[in-house]
Design brief:
The chain is an alpha/beta fold and 514 residues long. It has 17 helices and 13 strands. A nine-stranded mixed β-sheet has the order 2-3-5-4-6-7-10-11-13, sandwiched between helices. Strands 1-12 form a two-stranded antiparallel sheet.
Length: 514
Amino acid sequence: MSTSRLIKALAACAVVLAATATSTAAAPVSATAPDPLARFHGQAVAWHTCALGADDELGRSLDAAGVDCADITVPLDYAEPAGRTLTVAVSRLKATDTSHRVGALLLNDGGPAGPSLHMPLTKKEVLGEVAGRYDLIGMDPRFVGRSTPLDCGWDLGSALARSAGADRAAYREEVALARRLADQCKRTNGDVLPYVTTRNTARDMDVIRAALGENTLSYLGYSYGSYLGETYTQLFPGRTNRMVLDGVNSPEHYSQTLLRGAEAANEDALRAWASWAAVRHDTYRLGRTRGEVLETVHHILGAAEDRPLRIGTTYELDEHVLPSLFIGGLGSDLDARRADLARTVRLLARAADRKPVEPSTALAGQLEFLLTKAGGAPSSQMTAIICGDVAERRGTGSYWRAVEESRERFPLAGPLANNITPCEFWDRPVEAPTVLDNDVPALLVNATDDPRTLYAGAEDLREQWPSSRLLTVTGARQHGLYGEYGNTCVDRQVTTYLSTGRLPAHDPTCTSRP
């Protein structure tokens, strides 16, 4: 999530914080049992400047802010710690208020496969003076970003965000593509794929904790990062301190078809956006009513089913990729994000009328990621993590039946959310999916109308963790809230918890708008 896309949205808080302590002690370690990971836990962390060269914009930004970087060594296979190793890239903005230092706050931006080295910069802003009480730790998960890389050599970046298409012939193309991508990944990276998992990333987090000399970790994770945090609590009970999970992705809702179950929420988000665009018809020219705007959308989708839309001289958008542009634009109800989608739809409408169209800079970047090798490595990393976690063979016909069942009610989201993915052709995961059977003090944050991680998943986790509290933002179609939505109620409640370590006495509520 980018914290640069913020607006001023004032809201009233409904619940006052109370004195519920949330720190937990580290799990006891036997004084006689040898530590098989001793060389990793006790490694000396060599901090250094972050810039990799004069053209490394991220590294130069981190250096300018006083952030240090390091590479932490971890085992490829935790069952064989004497074997092959990897490096995990981390960043650190040291605590300045040392007399009130809490410890390390590890940050994850979601994904899967979301680089998070940058996050000490972005989260320092919303934390304000509380940032000084923590060592803010960014991490590129194993095989992502500046960590030991994984690249299956794919020539597209949309392996998990593709639509099945209009008919059985189009779906057969998707089956063939999914099989090809899975085979290519196995051929190029088969030796490491069994270890590209969330559980191993959680184990890496605990190596980082130990290498930093911390007894416990505080944690702030968004979206998939909430699932990573949950997995950490299951593998390492008692080693969390203050934990914030924003956009809750519970284990029961985590599957190889990422948006399955969220079809209705995304169609609702589309209709809400269409109403917003209709009010601004004089600006975007998409229709004066919600119905007219939706007609424009369906005209675009239908044109792509007939033949791909030509965008500039480089890109062609077909029926498999086009829906992901719409879905990708529906993750927020902020005016700036809705305006981004409206501008894109205006261009797509011209392309659907077979008129010459030059993409905006933003759209060109999206298309490059979705359609070319530029997105191949991140897409293969994301796919490898999800498939390594929860891949299962369902039979190719099962996806098509699900697509057909959902298409009438959810014409945009259904064929995408239920489409086949390379996970159908992946090897079975080495470990069983994570099941939570613990109770962790944590602050869960979710919007009631989040179209990515459904509010029902946050409610489920709140019920599983009686010691947690659920901060609800009512009426918001927003994925990612703390420091992302410009909601002062949310930002104040989360920051107060990270400052004091006290959870609210009851589940608090904020409104999306004043």
